[in-house]
Amino acid sequence: MERRRRVLSPDEAKLWREAMKGVTPFPQRLPTELLETAAPAMIARPSGRSSPLPPSPPPPPRPAVPPPTLDPSRSPGLDKRSRDRLKKGEMAIEGSLDLHGLTQDAAHTALWRFITGSAEQGRRCVLVITGKGNRDGIGVLRLQVPRWLNESTLRPLVLAFVGARPQHGGDGALYVLLKRRR
Q1: Residue 163 near residue 171, CB atoms below 8 Å
Q2: This model's pTM is above 0.70
């Protein structure tokens, strides 16, 4: 379902431009001039329905150039003892996310919110359940989640990830170790 935005009145648009006059936009965002000219085409008509929760911000766009990657076989910056404890499932799991039944876009958004939220809450080790895929062991989310964890938006938060033990989902789940908050 597509969420529709409310159309600004001319007075509201003028007030918005006045309030944003001295603001510098983020590099990945459109400049204010482009937003002013594109706003009527980008903003849809209101649907008339109200939602009980305010809309949450979408995840940042996927980067074109991947950062240095982590993979389950090696974890730079993690000592051997911690790595072994993570691989054996001995670290306390402080949160989990089950992505079963989600589309790629919904799963990507859910993963981004979960990892960033967990990092903000100071969680250290979390479990991400992707599912094992079809009978051949090929799962779209199983392949995509490690790539998403390596994106420039999540990579700064993730220290390491490894496949989970059978009691936590085995090949269809990952232990994700988040960096400590400084």
Answers
A1: yes
A2: no
DSSP letters for 164-182: PPGGGTGGGEEEEEEPPP-
Instruction: Tell me whether residue 64 is in a domain.
Output: no
Q: Which residues of 48-60 are buried (b: 16+ CB within 10 A; e: fewer)?
A: eeeeeeeeeeebe
Q: Strand pairing partners for 96?
A: 127
Sequence-ordered list of residues with C-beta below 8 angstroms from that of 177, at least 6 positions apart, any chain: 75, 78, 82, 86, 91, 124, 125, 158, 159, 160, 161
Contact 108, 59 (CB under 8 A): yes
- The answer to whether the beta carbons of residues 140 and 104 sit under 8 Å apart is yes
Number of domains in the chain: 2
Spell out, as residue ranges, where the chain has pLDDT lower than 50.
34-35, 37-47, 66-67
Does 170 lie in the same domain as 107? yes
